[in-house]
Design a protein that fits this description.
2 domains; Rossmann fold; 6 helices; 21% strand; alpha/beta
Length: 226
């Protein structure tokens, strides 16, 4: 455990150093082959309020947690490596990079992690290095353009927690599928996840925490667009 509290009265100038100081390297429960810089009850960032986060210029640190949808999608990719092996992969809304890293570990030819939160770039770089893989990163909003034409596989975990975003992402993913990409989605039953038009590939019981979710174990599924 690293000692010290996060700086609450100064803007963050070194994102990588901030992440290292305020998280700890640990294995996500459903993908224990991997290690990630994550927050938990004994790390400084866990206790920060929204006001404290705003004071130091930090957006909500979604990159500091291994969300259930991402864990399930990472598990599926690791167990079904043929889905990504030798292929060009995009991990949409990458967060910590757990899915991107799993894809690279499963043999993807290349992996682009995409997230509009610039802190995710530092988190993905740190986590990829900790797992001995190379993952590219972009903070461009991929939804502002058609799906990348060179993507063979698009992975998306936990994307349906807000209605407008969920609707926009599903239109974009449907376009990616129509263009020939394989689309896999990890979702733990979020309110705005579409109930029709998808095929369930796998279902997992993913350990989480009541601090993040409504249950300590979330039934989480991996879906594909037909």
């Amino acid at each position: 455990m690293r000692s010290g509290a996060p700086q609450k009265h100064a803007m963050i100038t070194d994102r990588r150093a901030f992440i290292v100081a305020n998280t700890r390297l640990q294995a996500p429960p459903h993908a224990p082959e991997l290690v990630l810089h994550l927050a938990d009850e004994i790390t400084p960032i866990w206790k920060l309020t929204e006001e404290a986060l705003a004071e130091i210029g930090l957006p909500p640190p979604f990159w500091a947690f291994a969300w259930a949808g991402g864990q399930a999608l990472a598990r599926y990719v690791l167990d079904n490596s043929a889905v990504v092996a030798g292929r060009r992969v995009v991990d949409f809304a990458s967060g910590s990079g757990i899915v991107a890293i799993a894809a690279k570990r499963a043999g993807a030819a290349s992996v682009l992690a995409a997230d509009i939160d610039g802190y995710c770039g530092a988190a993905v770089a740190l986590n990829a290095a900790a797992n001995g893989v190379a993952v590219e990163f972009t903070d461009a909003d991929l939804l502002d353009a058609p799906p990348p034409s060179d993507a063979d596989v698009i992975l998306a975990g936990d994307i349906c927690y807000e209605k407008p975003l969920a609707e926009r992402v599903m239109v974009w993913l449907t376009a990616a599928r129509a263009a020939g990409a394989t689309v896999l989605i990890g979702d733990p039953g979020r309110t705005y996840f579409p109930k029709t038009g998808l095929i369930k590939l796998a279902e997992y019981q993913v350990a989480t925490t009541r601090e993040l979710e409504d249950f300590e174990v979330k039934k989480t599924s991996v879906w594909t667009l037909p």
